[in-house]
From TrEMBL:
Entry's Gene Ontology molecular function annotations: ATP binding; metal ion binding; pyruvate carboxylase activity
Entry superkingdom: Bacteria
Record keywords, A-Z: ATP-binding, Ligase, Nucleotide-binding
ATP-binding recorded as keyword: yes
Domain Biotin carboxylation stretches: 1-128
Protein name: Acetyl-CoA carboxylase biotin carboxylase subunit
Length: 128
């Protein structure tokens, strides 16, 4: 996606949130197909993908949400938010493809966390 399209879609997302008076963490999703932009949905909560936003903006989304819940203003203005670089997110979910992809479980015998410059690892492993 070119910078012009990205800026246009970003503006649409901000306008959608303002139109309904929404001031908190959330996502507005669009589909871009054949040069046309289609609104898909607005999620009025912190999505698991919020870490992507945090990595490319340097903004702690959860901290900002807590500020709002506490009656404080955001610590940044929309016009001050700058995207820097790119980020990828990967998730591994234990699911059973032979059972309608229901959650599955097993024993974790080894776990090696990735690391290195620029690598962020958020993990959760439950011990039964």
């Amino acid at each position: 996606m070119c910078i012009r399209d990205s800026a246009y879609i970003g503006d649409l997302a901000v306008r959608a949130a303002k139109a309904v008076g929404y001031e908190n963490a959330g996502t507005v999703e669009f589909l871009l197909a054949d040069g046309e932009v289609y609104f898909m949905e607005m999620n009025t909560r912190v999505q698991v993908e919020h870490t992507i936003t945090e990595e490319i903006t340097g903004i702690d989304v959860v901290r900002e949400q807590i500020r709002i819940a506490s009656g404080l203003e955001l610590s940044v203005k929309q016009d001050d938010i700058v995207h820097r670089g790119y980020a990828l997110q990967f998730r591994i979910n234990a699911e059973d493809p032979k059972n309608n992809f229901l959650p599955s479980f097993g024993k974790i015998t080894r776990y090696y966390a990735p690391g290195g410059p620029g690598v962020r690892t958020d993990t959760a492993i439950s011990v039964s």
